[in-house]
Queue: 2 jobs
Job 1
Amino acid sequence: MSQPRTRAWSVAAGAVTLSVLLASCSSSGSTASGGAASGASAGGSAAAAGWSQECTGKSLSVIAEATANSQIIEKLLPDFKDKTGIDVTIEQAPYDSLVQKAVLDFTGNKGTYDVLSIPYEYLGSFAEKGYLAPIDDMVSTPPTGVGTDFSTADIIPGMWKLSSNWKDHWYGMPSNSAVMMMFFRKDLMENPDEQAAFKAKYGYDLAPAKTWAQYKDIAEFFTRPAGATLAGQTLSEPFYGVTLAGKRHVATVLEWMNYAWGQGGDLFSKDGQPALNSPENITALDYEKALTPFAPPGYTSATWDDTTAALQQGTAAESITWGDTAGAMEDTEASKVVGKMGYTSIPTLAEGTAPQAHLGSWTWSVNKASQNQNCGRLFMAWALSQPVQKELATGGGLPSLTSTFNDPELISSLPYWKQELVSLNESRPRPRIPQWSGISDLVSLELSRVLSGQASAKDALDEGQAKFQELMQGALPVTYQ
Amino acid sequence: MSLSAAEQVTPAPPSGGRKGGSRAVKARSQRQIGRWERVGFQGPSLLVLVLIVLFPLIYSVSLSLQSYSLVLPGRTGQWVGLENFQRILHDSDFFHAVGVTVIFVVCAVTLETILGTVVGVMLDRLARFRRAITSLLLLPMITTPLIVGLMFNFAFNAQFGYLTWVMARIGLDPNGGVLNQGPTALAALILVDVWEWFPFIALMVIAGLRALPTSPFEAASIDGASTFQTYRYIMLPMLKPVLVVAVLFRATEAIREFDKVYILTGGGPGSATTVNDLYQYRISFLNWDLSYGAALGLVTFAFVLTLCGVLYRVLTRNEAQL
């Protein structure tokens, strides 16, 4: 998955985190001063931290998606050089561009990038094509040469397996994992006037939606034109119930999969056959289409960037969106809804059933063609070390360590923190098979057609199913995804 | 090299046995030098052409006969003959993309030609500020297409775009944004292209008019031709060669439209604005089906080549009819 990205707040947050980290380094006994780490001073600090010096003087080229996580990591690179003596250049690119650069580098067998952060939907493809260097030995036995602040036991097991394990081999460690959840305007839900009006209209209490039916009722209830009243204030601009990503883009597919799972649907049937036009999937798409009157205009050209912006600007009441944008909601410089947003699990079909949230995960992986594989492993371990992961959390990114999610300081300071772990535990992945890019492309086309009113859900998914079957020819049934 | 060769030959005396033999040797050596000159001067450009045109073309042909995907494990370049081309015949998405491209090219280039010619003629008649306005006309053209896309993305934003606001004020309520409905999205793309490229035609027209002789116009004036008649029967036919080249340029450019569509609509909503290049991009670089992408590319290449030939013939036929 990929999240919205390049924001001023994360740069600012990165600057703050850098200073915090440097402070923490010096407090942990490092003798290094400033960024000009000579071999001797690097060795000194490394001895304290336990990091191997075998790569001192070498340089690594890393590519990662342009997200808060990557920006924070880039700011922290002097700390990595301080500990290991390795110079790192990190290139940040948007999702599509990153995948293209990675594939071209892999197929050219050039090893331009030593370490790549790759989306897990490409794991199966890259692993089977032999592009990635396995790190099974790092997982089976505690790795040596890494700092004491890194432990493989601390990485959230489920997330690690989904992001980095393919057919019993390990190919990396989670770099940027996010899960979808429900954001809602807490302040509006708690408003007594709105509560009374809602109860009068729908016959039950206004509260964060637990079912899809409630989610739609709330969307309808809060959609109001300019000039209407919302929580006692007269609206100068229209207000909307929900946000929707409806562009012909992977963001649309990922959001819809929550609705589909919520109705009991999926892309593949239990016996591994394409099931795009299953009754459950059609119902889910009809349901999403029924939400469109309550979404801001322009939803058919919206991706996660636009939905995040709409929520930040306070123009929508609730949303099924990515948990790693919660930091943007609480950013005092860019958001109009600081302290007003609530975070909870994805609704279900019937109250009391287990929520299912879409997981997006990226993994740091070492290029098989790299000349610096051991140094690349050091980088991965450093990126997963506790101080770095905590900086990700405080800077608005998302970590991958159990200890960071259980950090009492973070739980008390970040309103969304507890929900992130809850949703991660409710999460399920998209297919990680090599055909994913084709599946995503064809499903996004059909969803876009339906949401823009060009076709009915049934017709579009029937057509999509035919293309889906053609795409999967020779690879059925899908028994491992 | 050529200078030294000329210096060796020019001073040779006109007659004399031994000297005649010497002349023959010199002439032969001149021919040899001339040959090497040609190789020396043309070789590098031929080499570059081979590298950047011929090699990719041959590689594309070879790729289109294979089954090669960068992400699917089983497809490593097996020879499949004409399978990819047969697949094109049943690919309704491809034909849809070709249809969208044809609409885009015909509408955009026609509008650009009409508007560009009118503006060009008007500017040519302008006594003052012609140079300043001509320079300003260059602005849309020299803006990177990607930036043009981003600019109009803001302008057409369904909630905050200023063009959306303007359209709502003049009663053209786009109802959810022009980019969010198939027909209006395609119309918007065509208009953006016209905005960007009509100045090109206008500039060509201005340059063409500057190069025209004045005597036919004077003769027409003496014969009492009206302004319209002068334009219709004197100027347009004389300007035709310039317009043909300009239209050809624009048509071949518009056929490979990508940037603005990619930024503004991504080919959507649905596939309403999926032009041919964007479709091929999706096949090659989102689905990573390079072999099928190569086959589509070759078909497009053949199509464009044919179209150029036909267009050139049509536009240059019966000049007097214009």
Job 2
Amino acid sequence: MGAVAETTCLSLRGDATELAEAVAVAATVAPAKSPRQVLQNLLLEATNGVVRVTGSDLDLSVRVVVGQVTVEREGRLLVNASRLQQILRELAGEQVTLEADARQGCVITSPDSRFHVMGEEPDDYPEIGDWNDQGSFNLAAGDLIRMIQRTHFATHAEKTRYAMNGILIDLRGQRLRLVATDGKRMALCERALEKEHPEQVFVVVPTQAMTLLQRLMAGEDTVEVRVESSRVHFRTARAVLSARLIEGHFPPYEDVVPPEQDLKVSVGREAFIHALRRAALLGTKDSLAVRFRFHDEGLELTSRIPEIGETRVSLPLDYPGDPLEIGFNPQYFVDMLRVVDWAEATVELKDPQSAAVLRERRDDGSYLYLVMPLSLD
Amino acid sequence: MKPPPRKIVHVDMDAFYASVEQRDRPELRGKPVIVGGQPDSRGVVCTASYEARQFGVRSAMPTAQAYRLCPHGVFLRPDFPRYKEASRTIQAIFREVTELVEPLSLDEAYLDVSQNHLDEPSATRVAAHLRARIREQTALTASAGVAPNKFLAKVASDLDKPDGLTVIPPERVPELLAGLPVRKLPGIGRVGAERCARHGIERVADFLRHDLEQLVRWFGSSGPRYLELARGVDERPVRPGRERKSVSIEDTFAEDVVARAEAAAILDTLAERLAERLRLAEARGRTVVLKVKYADFQQVTRSRTLSAPTRAHTTLSETALALLDQTEVGGRPVRLLGIGVSNLDEPSASASAQLVLFDPDPP
């Protein structure tokens, strides 16, 4: 017992807000319910003056460094994730001490309160491998944040025959692409790299891992990336994230990128979002069909939901082509329009069976978004 | 106080799909037109024009059989958007008269005209008005039946087809039902009619020769209902906006089925017919339901919900077969098998199908 007591004698002091932030990140990964109950905990470790919090569901693991806390005694502690998170959130802004007691319990003390939470044996927690530099490469964190923002919403929520429930990282030569699709729309974000990348990377990373990574990269300059056969690891100055890759075939995304269409419609982004939201008001998320009628005076959006009602929204704009009617799920446009900072969106159209295309071209990269229509009878 | 008798109209378009085709394509007028699957397919007849009916072609008959009966017929694939268009016009005409409209399909509906927007006390004149409006607006003919309830109204509309109007006044009900074959009763099909025949009941009025107890012994809980109908009583209200919740098909066997392989073969045929019905209804269902009634009348259902709505014969058949393993079929004799789908998607939703970027199958 002596040895155990020694390793669990951790003691820290600092601002609860700092602890709460790190714990909140790790807690997003710890499953609320799991057949492996030990995973419902977070591992707190204080070594060499640094405090780290780890959460994992085995597929996805994250380890975050807690800033601005003082380590009084080094050690380890394993404690229920949601309880720890709730307590620290409540104490935010106060100076707290967090200590392990001799029986692996966790004692949190603030100027006017004291919590004692039962803990568990830290050695039972699965080993989350340490960061390994071999074969890693750097990417600009700001670029990657932006690329995740512009793609993540287009992934499929469920596992499908194609590996679409994650974001594809396609890295070749001097270009990096992130691609996401649910089969009905597709987002492709491309970025030129400063130097040639020696190896080709083509992996699908779960959406949750990518959105968490986006959060971990905030304020960082670079992120280190290392790809193994079945996992991918990311490291920032304060966190390490490791995710199991999605197996299976990513759909042949390059095949569906259309050439630039002649028929282009420009529309103010904000006005377009407003019109789309209004047209969608009566529909449900799953069954949303809006008729887009482009004509001389602009765009008319109509939807009719049986047994519920109808909507009609007009949006004046310059439309150069012959009258055209196409059905779309308006949400697919809204998802994308709210993550870009454009004043105007240009929609390329072809016919009622072909995807609408939105593009951005810049010297250092490009963005492409495709939305497939709904066939109207 | 007894409520005043209701005034129910049943309107049934004459050979609807075939008539729409003949209306829109004058060269088809006077010719036997058969709308449904192609003769070389395994499909069935949806509608046969009256010219085709003279050759014995009937709806729901396999198209291959229709082709043997009427090889010179014009076989057409159904063009639902046009039929729906005509149907919308007809439904609008109904609603000029009353909100109490219960559509049974694209071409058939019950109307309760006891109160109506025309303020016309005579249901007969309302029916005449409806038929005239339909002809005027769609250039199609409808037959109508007028009676105090749905059952008799439907019997009536069938009496003078095509382009007829039949009124059943209360005093004529006994006489009319006396000669009516039992198969015309709602709920009695081929097997039911055979069961009735075993007890000497061939005409509706034959039920009246037996007391309720006897009928319950023979027909169980359906006994009281048969007796009521045989007396011309049917209290079912006209339900406006009735939504179809499920589509199903079942078969009762003249002899109990014991072998699992035989049951499986029957299910496959039922799945095919169900797929056809779903195509006609322009519906797809997400939940497949298998119904099994054992020889001792114990009935069980098993269901499975699929990831996407379907009306594909193979999917229906495979799912039903998988469900069969959760029953005692193969060990216990079975008198009835049925397959249905519920959790239907709206026809309009399936009409606006989402197009996809990629072919469905990964390499």
